[in-house]
């Protein structure tokens, strides 16, 4: 009978071109993207360690001196292991808790945090998704989809396309890449939910953090009841991204369009590279892009703030 | 003409034969006498083209506000969240929920 192994074998949790995450028992080591800005990353990790973010962001651990990075020369960070959302049971996802965590994050006064806080990288990731789509051949089954996605992208204002706009001061602490893979229970297995992955965290428009669920709802993917619950929990917790009551879309519209375009662009790039058809959900995001691209231009612009 | 709310100039647009004035600043919309009725008539024509609903009548307005580019099922029968495509869709959506 095998004896229990006190040091379990390293278990890869994620291995993407931009980062590698490996679990060693209670410890998780993350190798960050080779093009990470080292100062910005250090500040982002210091924010996660700051007492104002206790109970919101998973706090980092000191990086063990003996840690051997998967990619020498790239920045490495260490985190406690937390239990993720069960990917096979998205219906059990903690939508309400996620909304409350975002509201608390967005209400954190940036001037009390480590400086200089970099910009939130949401728009940069959207621009990168478009570049990745452009670098990929059109999907054989959807030859016009590239043009549809590009058209929807060019209807966005400059700031949402990662072009700096001095008229929009960056005032709010944002996560920058919110999805259900960005939540863990800590301490595992049943502690409270925390947000993880600070690589895109920074100052920006907090609507960006609500925009993925908003885009899924607008595409007809996320059930209206779940969307309503998420939005109500965010408002109840004093989240500043949307007006406290009434139609939230004046604030959400631009960011939700940007996330729709980003998701569609990545779906086209990935499915073409993998030589597979678009799945039904990916097609729905491209359908959303087509509706965005067909909006009459004179009704297209958001009112000035 | 100028916007009654913020006094910025308004521009005239034509939508299906209906003249609409829109403010260049706050994007508010002004309708002349009879234009709202014209829009209501167009809406009624549009609804007559749709097949008669089966079972309980659909909600006339969506429970939650949606953007102008939202999927057409908002406020409709809601079959897109389940139905015979439900399982298929849930799998793809499950993947999308967890990816950047």
From TrEMBL, chain A:
This is Aminoglycoside phosphotransferase. Residues 24-242 form the Aminoglycoside phosphotransferase domain. InterPro entries: Aminoglycoside_PTrfase, Kinase-like_dom_sf. Pfam families: APH. Residues 1-11 have a biased composition (Pro residues). The lineage of its organism: Bacteria, Bacillati, Actinomycetota, Actinomycetes, Kitasatosporales. SUPFAM superfamilies: Protein kinase-like (PK-like) (SSF56112). Residues 1-20 are annotated as: Disordered.
Automatic annotation (TrEMBL), chain B:
Residues 44-100 are annotated as: Disordered. It comes from the Bacteria. InterPro entries: TF_Znf. Residues 2-40 form the Transcription factor zinc-finger domain. Residues 82-92 have a biased composition (Basic residues). Residues 50-60 have a biased composition (Pro residues). This is Transcription factor zinc-finger domain-containing protein.
């Amino acid at each position: 009978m095998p004896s229990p192994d006190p040091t379990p074998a390293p278990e890869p949790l994620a291995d993407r071109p931009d980062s590698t995450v490996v679990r060693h028992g209670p410890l998780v080591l993350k190798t960050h993207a080779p093009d990470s800005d080292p100062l910005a990353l250090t500040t982002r990790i210091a924010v996660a360690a700051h007492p104002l973010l206790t109970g919101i962001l998973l706090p980092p651990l000191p990086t063990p001196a003996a840690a051997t990075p998967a990619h020498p020369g790239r920045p490495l960070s260490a985190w406690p292991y937390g239990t993720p959302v069960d990917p096979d049971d998205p219906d059990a996802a903690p939508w309400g808790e996620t909304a409350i965590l975002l509201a608390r994050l967005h209400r954190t006064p940036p001037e009390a945090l480590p400086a200089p806080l970099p910009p939130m990288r949401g728009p940069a990731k959207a621009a990168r998704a478009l570049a990745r789509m452009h670098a990929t051949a059109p999907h054989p089954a959807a030859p016009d989809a590239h043009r549809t996605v590009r058209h929807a992208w060019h209807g966005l204002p400059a700031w949402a396309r990662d072009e700096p706009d001095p008229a929009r001061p960056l005032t709010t602490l944002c996560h920058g890449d919110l999805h259900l893979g960005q939540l863990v229970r800590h301490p595992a297995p049943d502690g409270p939910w925390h947000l993880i992955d600070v690589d895109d965290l920074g100052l920006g428009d907090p609507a960006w953090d609500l925009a993925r669920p908003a885009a899924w709802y607008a595409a007809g993917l996320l059930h209206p009841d779940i969307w309503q619950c998420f939005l109500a929990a965010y408002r109840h917790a004093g989240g500043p991204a949307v007006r406290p009551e009434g139609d939230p879309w004046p604030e959400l519209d631009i960011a939700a369009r940007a996330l729709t375009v980003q998701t569609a662009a990545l779906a086209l790039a990935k499915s073409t590279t993998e030589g597979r058809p678009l799945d039904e959900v990916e097609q729905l995001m491209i359908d959303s892009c087509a509706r965005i691209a067909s909006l009459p231009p004179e009704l297209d612009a958001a009112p000035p703030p | 003409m100028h916007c009654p709310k913020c006094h910025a100039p308004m521009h005239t647009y034509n939508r299906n034969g209906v003249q609409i004035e829109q403010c260049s600043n706050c994007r508010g919309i002004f309708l002349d006498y009879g234009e709202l009725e014209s829009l209501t008539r167009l809406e009624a024509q549009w609804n007559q083209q749709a097949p008669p609903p089966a079972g309980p009548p659909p909600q006339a307005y969506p429970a939650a506000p949606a953007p102008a580019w939202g999927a057409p099922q908002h406020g409709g029968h809601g079959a897109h969240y389940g139905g015979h495509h439900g399982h298929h869709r849930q799998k793809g959506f499950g993947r999308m929920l967890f990816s950047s």
